[in-house]
Amino acid sequence: YLHIVCIFSVADRNGDKGWFRSLFVHTVDARKDAHSNLLSKKETSNLYKIQFHNVKPECLDAYNSLEAEVQHRLHQDQDFPCEVVGSWNTWYGEQDQAVHLWRYKGGYPALTECLKKLNNNKEYLEFRKERAKMLISRRNQLLLEFSFWNEPLPRQGPNLYEMLSGLLLHPENDMSHNRARAITYRQENSEAVGGFFSQIGDLYVVHHLWAYESLQSREETRNSAWLKEGWDVNVYYTVPLIRSMESRIMIPTKSSPLQ
């Protein structure tokens, strides 16, 4: 048998760290602010909530009608500091799923105020009981808005919407520069709707929301990006930082401000 003995120097005479010790000791670059503060918009204090409701297939139409009625009433009532940004049903992706995006103007205090009022609203509590009969499961996340994305505003339709949701592999790496450049490559038809990252719920998740006239226009838009100088470099540096990515193609409900 051949025996190989490797001897590593842990420290030299001056006490400096050797190569072997450097395998186990890592330096961390100190941040001067929270990662969320570095990425989110400074000029607004909006907080977003995204809801994913998995609906019993036979109840989807009744669910959409009930949800639309409640959203309308909340919009009419100025006492609630919240508004629905968009509501959709998933077409391709997880089936029989409803997705709602809410905005709370005023951040966490507005969210807390709204929840307190809703929990004391008998009509809303009855709505929740009725809605629960139609659901298989539900989950949500609280989100902040990327500083370099458009603020989601109502738009005319008809449009299809794609939500790209990704889990970051290396959340400590700042992807904001590459993501900001990516928006400029995909704005020919104002298809960029909004971009968000999670604060509560599943962490290190980003959501990019796009609008297209059709699946064909989506294909053409994505292909045209590869013809622009710099897009390939942007993809090269961004993709390795993503652990997983999910695409949903969604159809807006009749009551959605984003049509």
From TrEMBL:
Pfam family, one: NIPSNAP
Domain NIPSNAP: 177-257
Ranges annotated as spanning the membrane: none
UniProt-recorded name of the protein: Nipsnap homolog 1 (C. elegans)
GO cellular component: mitochondrion
Signal peptide: none
Domain of life: Eukaryota
Family: Belongs to the NipSnap family.
